[in-house]
Write a structure and sequence with these properties.
The complex is a heterodimer of chains A (233) and B (218). Chain A is of the alpha/beta class. Chain A has a single domain, classed as Glutaconate Coenzyme A-transferase (3-Layer(aba) Sandwich), CATH 3.40.1080.10. In chain A, the strands form two sheets. In chain A, strands 1, 2, 3, 4, 8, 9, 10 and 11 form an eight-stranded mixed beta sheet that branches. In chain A, strands 5-7-6 form a three-stranded antiparallel beta sheet, with helices on one face. In chain A, strand 2, helix 3 and strand 3 form a beta-alpha-beta unit. The longest helix of chain A has 13 residues. Chain B is an alpha/beta fold and 218 residues long. The two termini of chain B are 13 Å apart. The model of chain B has no long low-confidence stretch (mean pLDDT 96). Classes of the chains: A alpha/beta (233), B alpha/beta (218). The interface between A and B is large, with 58 and 52 residues. Chain A: InterPro entries: 3-oxoacid_CoA-transf_A, CoA_trans_fam_I, NagB/RpiA_transferase-like.
Chain lengths: 233, 218
């Protein structure tokens, strides 16, 4: 077993610097690497580029990095729900690259899987395709999209072990598995670190080879963005 | 009388067939799930990574790790599955999803759709809409026939930045059901009590009206 376990978030983020590009897992506030985000705020790295489907809310998730004006560029598919984001974008302080959600996922997966680029029909004929190579296959038009390049990927999983194996829960899986191994260094934080051998190999969602560092996360808030319920009749 | 949002959802629910995997967008499309016949088997996909979506949880049973694409807490039904975003869009891009229902700001007679950006105003992003409309073969747009200023949303050409080109097959509005065929809107049904003339007046695009146009049955 190759040991990927580090003792805490400080050790996990060694080497993080200003002007780097980070991938951050999560959809809305679901499955976001809460510990890594807090540490990035603490380290106060500046001029960073974040690849993440959403930009958090004003006072949580990636919104914390935006509030602290640490982000130079956001690459996302949907960025509503964040007033500070809107202010920085409209004032030109923040560069924003909007990418179709499936393309964003696949640009991560391509980086993970060693593909430099791929063709997708998403965005053909729209401003997303402007300046990009397009090509026809079987009578349909596709856009060439390049894999992302990132320095760190910050991942949140439900359970993991020292070998770096990961299991996710519910829809908190989202972009997390696609970002594992898609950056130079993948840092996974887990709600529960289990002993090696506990996870059933048949049920591992991400094999440890895609993870460089793993640590036991702390104090998860797991905030709900839209609490929607029905009443018992 | 023109339909309300629930009426639109009820009419679209009639398009859902037994054995369909269906992706519902945010807004009116989400309501469609409530009106699908209960004698057919349908599974709802949410692009953040769940197939077999159920109703909202009971108060106190919500789980932060189980949400839909609108970030609402949900439940799952027996037979449900979770998956990552790349696999979710493999279902969509790979045409495994049978029906996509989404909202729009504008639809044009060539099947173009615009629903993600109003230049000069806040841009929230396209989310999964561009992937959905680029691949789905069966796209129904759910929307009001006109915007809040009374301007038609059924146009010869979209004026807003496009989400996808030549992709919309059907539009259900508060006034009518329209089919997009050969770069033209064909009037298929009228909302109860709404005349062909009223629909034509609310439509900027050319409307093909052939024979007697039936009223919707809801």
């Amino acid at each position: 077993m190759i040991n990927k376990k580090v003792n805490n978030v400080e050790e996990a983020l060694v080497g993080v610097q200003s002007e780097m590009t980070f991938m951050l897992g999560g959809f809305g506030l679901c499955g976001i690497p809460e510990n890594a985000i807090s540490e990035l705020v603490k380290l106060n790295v500046r001029e960073i580029t974040c690849i993440s489907n959403n930009a958090g809310v004003d006072n949580f998730g990636l919104g914390l990095l935006l509030q602290n004006k640490q982000v130079k560029k956001m690459i996302s598919s949907y960025v509503g729900e964040n007033d500070e984001f809107e202010r920085q974008m409209l004032s030109g302080e923040l560069e924003v690259e909007l990418t179709p959600q499936g393309t964003l996922a696949e640009k991560c997966r391509a980086a993970q899987a060693g593909f430099p680029a791929f063709y997708t029909p998403a965005g053909y004929g729209t401003e997303v395709a402007e300046g990009k190579e397009t090509r026809e296959f079987d009578g349909k038009m596709y856009v060439l999209e390049a894999a992302y390049k990132a320095d760190f990927a910050f991942i949140k999983a439900w359970k993991g072990d020292a070998a770096g194996n990961l299991i996710f829960k519910g829809t908190s899986r989202n972009f997390n598995p696609n970002m594992c191994g898609a950056a130079t260094i993948t840092v996974a934080e887990v709600e529960e670190m289990v002993a090696v051998g506990v996870l059933d190999p048949d049920n591992v969602h991400v094999p440890g080879i895609f993870v460089q560092r793993i640590f036991q996360g702390e104090g998860y808030e797991k905030r709900i963005e839209q609490r929607t319920v029905r009443q018992k009749k | 009388m023109a339909l309300d949002k629930i009426g639109i959802a009820k009419r679209i629910a009639q398009e859902v067939q037994d054995g369909f995997y269906v992706n519902l967008g945010i807004g009116i499309p989400t309501l469609v799930a409530n009106y699908v016949r209960d004698d057919i088997e349908v599974e709802f996909q949410s692009e953040n990574g769940v197939l077999g979506m159920g109703p909202f949880p009971f108060d106190g049973e919500e789980d932060a790790d189980i949400i839909n694409a609108g970030k609402q807490t949900i439940t799952t039904l027996p037979g449900a599955s979770f998956f990552d975003s790349a696999m979710s869009f493999a279902m969509i891009r790979g045409k495994h999803v049978d029906l996509t229902i989404l909202g729009a700001m504008e639809v044009a007679e060539n099947g173009d759709i615009a629903n993600w950006k109003i230049p000069g105003k806040m841009v929230k992003g396209m989310g999964g809409a561009m992937d959905l409309v680029a691949s789905a073969e069966n796209i129904i747009v759910a929307m009001m026939h006109t915007n809040k200023h009374g301007d038609s949303k059924i146009l010869k050409r979209c004026s807003l930045p496009l989400t996808g080109v030549g992709c919309v097959t059907k539009v259900v509005t508060n006034l009518a059901v329209l089919e997009v065929k050969d770069h033209q809107f064909h009037l298929i049904e009228r909302a109860p009590g709404v005349s062909v003339q009223e629909i034509q007046e609310a439509t900027e695009a050319t409307l093909i009206v052939k024979g007697e146009i039936p009223e919707m049955t809801l």
